[in-house]
Amino acid sequence: MNRHQPMHVIPRLAVPPCPRYLNIQSFNFPPPISTQRSPIDLLKMAPRLSQPVVTLRLLRRYYSSATEPLIRVTNLPAPNTGHIRILELNRPSARNAISKALLANLRAEIDAVHIQYGPNGEELPLQKRFGGAAGVDEKGPTRAVVLASAVDTSFCAGADLKERKGMSQGETAEFLTNLRNTLTSLSNLPIPTISAISSVALGGGLELALSTHFRVLSSNATVGLPETRLGIIPGAGGTHRLPALIGLSRARDLILTGRRVGAPEAYFLGIADRLVEIVPEDERDGSDVLGEARKAALSEAVRLAQEICEGGPIGVRAALQAVAWAREEVENKMYERVVNTEDRNEALKAFQEKRKPIFTGR
């Protein structure tokens, strides 16, 4: 393991070692966290890591406690320019099950990021209003999105089956179309997207996470696609995104059996890109574990976003496209896009002057 990597985070670099739990009681953790803590509190209370994380002031829209939003939005200044946007699913009464209202809010937030970029991923002039629940925003473009949960007990439990039970056949078809379109829109964002999963992500919840570029799991998390146990199949991208990620044979195993997979196995299979180790529940109070796991997963997801955003924004976006298409002609085209930019010239100048480059996204 790279000696600069935090001790309790395992990066996906090679064949993973046998998972082992790290006793995080050696860290100076705060008291148990309630499900109503904001990302500001979570990041302030995150465990100390062996690699320092840049401490930046969070810019947050605050809401009345009488009307908690279905998605809590937090903006964290990114390195260089712009910001990292944190979207927290916030439907604790239903373990973040995807209802019509939650889906509409999520789509609005995704659209709010899309309008900042053109059809080829180029950055558009600063907009005074992003739209969606984010509202007025003057902090520059979104450089990365972190999708997380405001609920300790679940990242997302999938579709809201109680709501779906009351839908007509036509309403069900319309909901599924909207869900598919929303996840496709999320997967097509031209900037890095990261899911922070610290508890349960099942069915549509895992399909939601599969729509992001990276997945950070705490070691107590559980994921799965149990649809065949309900007489159906994954219908929001699971049958093609999972095989593309971990291979046909392994995906077939998980989908046909519908079994749940613990975080260590998910990391081994390639579903998780980072594994944050948490002490087992049988050694500590369960509520303590869930609260600490949520803030630890979110903290590592933000750290990963910050690390990515240290690179030039144009280069990061071009690399995402080149890797996704994975063809030589695409790489050549993306290189032509980045080679004659101000960021490229700044990087060369900074190298000569032996300093860190200051990227502007131009």
From TrEMBL:
Transmembrane spans: none
Gene3D superfamilies xrefs: 2-enoyl-CoA Hydratase, Chain A, domain 1, Lyase 2-enoyl-coa Hydratase, Chain A, domain 2
Keyword Glycoprotein: no
Pfam families: ECH_1
CDD domains: crotonase-like
Keyword field: Lyase, Virulence
GO cellular component: mitochondrion
GO BP term, example: fatty acid beta-oxidation
GO MF annotations in UniProt: lyase activity
Top-rank taxon: Eukaryota
The UniProt record lists the keyword Zinc-finger: no
InterPro entries per UniProt: ClpP/crotonase-like_dom_sf, Enoyl-CoA_hydra/iso, Enoyl-CoA_hydra_C
Protein family (similarity comment): Belongs to the enoyl-CoA hydratase/isomerase family.
Name of the protein this chain belongs to: Methylglutaconyl-CoA hydratase
Species, as recorded: Fusarium oxysporum f. sp. pisi HDV247
